[in-house]
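Input record (one chain):
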Amino acid sequence: MRTTILPRMAAVAAAVLVSVTGLTGVANAWAGENAGAGENAGAGETASIEAAAYPHCNGSKAVRKGSYATTQPYYTATGSRNCQLTRGDSGSGVRALQSAMNACYGTGLVTDGVFGENTEEAVKKVQIAVGAEVDGYYGPETRDAMRWPLTGGGGCSRI
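The corresponding structure, as predicted from the sequence alone:
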């Protein structure tokens, strides 16, 4: 029991540290040291601590870049694009991500608005292509590193 509960508790505590201090490195180190003993301790449990500090994207909205625009996931309660998408999420935010990865990276996803195994694998491929941390989660780091399709023939560009 200790090997499964303590790493999760450490990851949650580290996520709180990130949200309060903004110091991801310190939180990652703390979670790794305090995850408890056992084969799962610290391994993979802290990989997405920064993402854990963000709410799940539950909508999509237009974002402007000069005279062009694109559609990106966002969290409706705050209007912030600082949110995450992970396996099991669904909705217009996932659909916007899938459309962008198809248009700019040729991932060939079904644009169904469901973040499943294929979307997770596509996110990993995009993360590799853009030099972001490869974890299969969509969050601010991936959003800022990837290209987005622009309306009106603007091609694909970082926003």
